[in-house]
Design a protein that fits this description.
Radius of gyration: 16 Å
Largest sheet: none
Number of strands: 0
Distance between the termini: 21 Å
Order of helices and strands: HHH
Number of helices: 3
Low-confidence stretches: none
Shape: elongated
Structural class: mainly alpha
């Protein structure tokens, strides 16, 4: 029979998206509470989300297709976890 996967590709992407949104909002909330400025909240949420998105969602695909020689180790593990073989 083989080993069953406990989480589908779609669920993996959704869980990573949820985690990125949660971390971004929490970071923004901390800035909002410490400064009291809503504009800083928006800026921090945007920057944190952009950085984390680039690192965890776009990074493995970038290295796989644009720089295949660097697609190893950490990036390969993340890419394989997403379902990219």
């Amino acid at each position: 029979m083989g080993q069953q996967k406990w989480m589908s590709k779609t669920a993996r992407f959704r869980s990573v998206w949820a985690l990125l949104i949660f971390i971004s909002l929490i970071s923004g909330y901390i800035v909002l509470r410490s400064t009291g400025n809503f504009l800083y909240y928006i800026v921090v949420v945007s920057i944190v989300f952009s950085l984390l998105y680039t690192l965890f969602l776009a990074g493995p695909f970038y290295y796989k297709y644009k720089k295949p020689d660097k697609y190893s180790g950490f990036w390969k593990k993340i890419g394989e976890w997403y379902g990219e073989k």
